[in-house]
Structure to design on (226 residues):
């Protein structure tokens, strides 16, 4: 879970809340449990740890985009529920239909329920472009980082945050760990060797990753560790 949080660049505590849910304590009234909003899997019996499957990582990426659009979490949940109902499929956030139909679906619902929380979310997420309702630029930019398989679900993620390096997560390569497109090696392997004392030039020669990409990965890792 901590590794997944680093990939999508959110605090580990935030990611845990998304995966496990949280207890909401309003000023008035009874406590309520807000369930998980991304998919996670329990590790062996009696373990309190959870792992994040690829579909859960995809869902988290979409949540990051929604948060960057300025939508508070308490408003995100109703919108997600409406998307799931409207699209009528499991893991709606990881489906290509979110990209093709999600904005129009949210707008239609908000138009018929103008005072709902979904309507308030829609005003922050959906814009009109070429006479069509589409997601805002931030959401669009994140959705374009996905490649979809024939079943309509995400098959590859281009990891955000890099200026030079192309880094992807592919569940069929390197056990889903982030890898450089140029060179095909795991990012964490290159970083480990760098912190063990090898130079950027040596890493470039051994792994086939351009020096600018190695330096970019070092920069991103340093920022996320800060």
């Amino acid at each position: 879970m901590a590794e997944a949080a680093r990939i999508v660049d959110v605090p580990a505590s935030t990611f845990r809340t998304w995966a496990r849910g949280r207890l909401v304590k309003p000023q008035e009234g009874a406590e309520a449990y807000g369930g998980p909003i991304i998919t996670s899997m329990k590790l062996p019996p009696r373990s309190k740890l959870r792992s994040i499957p690829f579909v859960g990582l995809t869902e988290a990426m979409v949540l990051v985009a929604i948060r960057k659009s300025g939508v508070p979490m308490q408003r995100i949940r109703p919108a997600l529920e409406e998307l799931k109902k409207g699209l009528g499929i499991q893991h709606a956030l990881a489906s290509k239909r979110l990209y093709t139909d999600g904005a129009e679906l949210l707008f239609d619902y908000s138009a018929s329920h103008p005072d709902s929380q979904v309507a308030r979310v829609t005003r922050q997420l959906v814009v009109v472009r070429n006479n069509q309702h589409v997601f805002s630029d931030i959401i669009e930019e994140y959705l374009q980082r996905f490649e979809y398989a024939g079943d309509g679900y995400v098959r590859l993620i281009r990891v955000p945050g890099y200026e030079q390096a192309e880094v992807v997560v592919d569940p069929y390569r390197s056990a889903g760990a982030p890898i450089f497109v140029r060179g095909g090696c795991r990012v964490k392997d290159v970083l480990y060797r760098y912190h063990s004392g090898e130079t950027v030039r040596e890493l470039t020669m051994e792994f086939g990753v351009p020096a600018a990409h190695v330096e970019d990965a070092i920069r991103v890792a340093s920022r996320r560790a800060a």
Observations:
- The longest helix spans residues 96-112.
